[in-house]
Each structure stands twice: as structure tokens, then as C-alpha cells.
Amino acid sequence: MKNIAAIVLLVMVMTGCTLxxxxxxxxxxQPKPVSSTIADGTKILLTVVxxxxxxxxxxxxxGIAFAKVSAEGLFPKFIMAVENGFRAKxxxxxxxxxxxxxxxxxxxxxxxxxxxxxxxxxxxxxxATILAEAERGGKDYLNQYRASDEDRQLxxxxxxxxxxxxxxxxxxxxxxxxxxxxxxxxxxxK
Length: 190
What we know:
The protein has helices at 2-16, 74-88, 159-178, 181-188, and strands at residues 22-23, 43-50, 58-60, 67-70, 92-93, 102-117, 122-136, 139-153. With 190 residues, the protein is an alpha/beta fold. Strands 1, 2, 3, 4, 5, 6, 7 and 8 form an eight-stranded mixed sheet that branches.
């Protein structure tokens, strides 16, 4: 009887988080720009949009997937990080379509968290995708930046682990965007 009670208690502890929604605290670290004057005041019309299919980041609870994972307030922080990143590189952001040397659309395409069950483990995977679409002088530039992180563990993810994984992948794609030299050369017209 004690063994059954211990097993029931263990199952309840391991699945407790699967029933609790989680508001992820995704920490966006401002990538350090490469020391350069390449942009040298190039004016860009920067538009940052959220193109995710769903605002929910996914569900936690492998196989059961009851509790949703969200990140309220994430998108304004994302916009600020993108804008600050391009300013730090020497670009001048403008809202005047006619005054812009180039137009740049940055879209957050995906930010997802998913758990999958294995024989004795649970897999936790986070994915992020950003799309950059630029236009200058009748020419276009398009690039997609992706990051993924997968972790296997013995129990469902706790909140801190979800936050850490989502922060990791989002910061990685932001770093890819802001260190894309081909995008910089396109925006400045070289």
C-alpha cells in the first residue's frame, strides 16, 4: 500500500506542472553590435511585426499537453531590442517613407515550446524564427534566421527551464539578425 501511495505521489508531482499555465519570462539580451561605422547614418524605415500563428508559445505536459505557455509583454521588448540593435550599428531609424535610404521589415515568425514523451524521459524543445525582408533601390533582400534547442529530462519542465530555453533561442536569432553582414551591405547600398 505504501508503494502505491508513493507512486501516486510521484506521478502527481511529476505531472503537477502539466496542469498549471505558465507565463514565460523571456529575457531578451541586447546583442552587442560589432564595433563598426558601416551604417554611418543610413536612414532605414524599420517595421517590426509579429507573424506568429498563435500568441501562445505552446503547451507543457508531454502527451497530455494541458497547460498553455504564454509570454505576455514579450513583443514590445522584442521591438525595442530590434530597434536598439540597428541604432547601435549606426542606422538612423525614420518613419518618413520618402526620406528612407532603405526599408526593412523584421518579422517574428515563430517562438514555440513543446514537450514530447519518451520511454523514461521528457523532451523539451524551443524554436525561434525571424524573417528579414529589405528593399533598396528596387532590389530585395530576404533572409530567415532560425534557432532551436532540445533538452531531455526525467520530468516535465519547470517554469525556469522553459524561460531559459525560450530566452536562449530568441536571443540566438536576434544575434543572427544583427550580425548579418550581407544585410548591412544591402541596406547601405554596397
